[in-house]
Structures are given as structure tokens and as C-alpha cells.
Amino acid sequence: MNLALWIAAGLLAVVALTGGVTKTFVPVEKLAALHGGGWTADVDARFVRTLGVLELLAAAGLVLTAALDIAPVLVPVTAVCWIVLMVGAMITHGRRGEFALVAVNVVYLALAVFIAWGRFGPESFTG
User: Fold this and answer.
1) Domain chopping of the chain, boundaries
2) How far apart are CA 64 and CA 60, in angstroms?
3) Least CB-packed of 6, 36, 65, 122 within 10 Å?
4) Where does the sequence pass through the membrane (predicted)?
5) For residue 50, what pLDDT is reported?
6) pLDDT digit string (tens) for 31-86?
7) What's the CA gap between 104 and 99, in Å, rounded?
């Protein structure tokens, strides 16, 4: 189970890193033109950048804190934060009728739930 949790955290970290780099460094006008990025045209650019930075922090929190043994309890805490982020993403995409993206967000949410459950519970780093 520990290996499965590491794999799930790694996959979710790659997703967070990709989204974070995109939202932080790609101009909002270009993001708005991308599939699934239309919502960025409806919000302030600072909000998009803030989400990007939070996703970059999530990528680090899902893997690096445990790999470097620096506050590994941040792994499940980060997973819970990711759950909240995915609920917001599902609401946003659902309102826009982008139901395929809602389904993708559900998969990411499920990975985060698995990580939070596993790292707070049976495979805790504190045990």
C-alpha cells in the first residue's frame, strides 16, 4: 500500500506541477484559448496566478516533504487541500458545461482522497 500511495502522490504531483507552471507562467490570454481554459477569461489574472502558485506548492507538498523527511505530515494535509481545489474546479467546469473536465477532476479528487486516507491512516509517516 505504501508503494501505491507514493505512486498516487507522484502522479498527482505531476498534475499539480503541470497545472501550476501553466497557470503561473503562461499568459492568461493564451490559457483562455486552450481547451478547458476558458474560465481564465472570466477571472482576474492575479487569481489565475495565485492558483498556479498554490498548485506548485501542492506538487512539492505531495512528494518533497516526505521524500526529504521535512514535515511529512504535509502530504495528507496537501491532499486535503487538493480535494478542496478539485471541488472548486468541478463546480467551475460544471457551470460551464465542461463535463469531460469534471470527470477528470473527479479522478484527481479520488487520488487525493486515497492519499489523504492512506497517509492520515494506515500508512502514516508518523507511525
Assistant:
1) 2-120
2) 5
3) 122
4) 56-87, 99-120
5) 97
6) 999 989 999 999 999 999 999 999 999 999 999 999 999 999 999 999 999 999 99
7) 9
Helices H / strands E in the chain, number of each: 5, 0
Based on the number of CB atoms within 10 Å of its own CB, is 39 exposed (0-12), middle (13-18) or buried (19 or more)? middle
Which amino acid is residue 49, in one-letter code? R
C-alpha cell at 118: 492512506
DSSP 71: S
Phi first, then psi: what are they for 97, rounded to 5°? 75, 20
73: nearest Cα among 109, 126, 16: 126
- Spatial separation of the C-alpha atoms in residues 117 and 113, rounded to whole Å: 6
DSSP assigned state of 34: S
127 has a pLDDT exceeding 70: no
All cell numbers assigned to 90: 468541478
- Whether the CB-CB separation of 31 and 22 falls below 8 Å is answered with yes
Q: Name the residue with cell 512539492.
A: 60
Nearest-angstrom CA–CA distance, 46 and 33 = 18
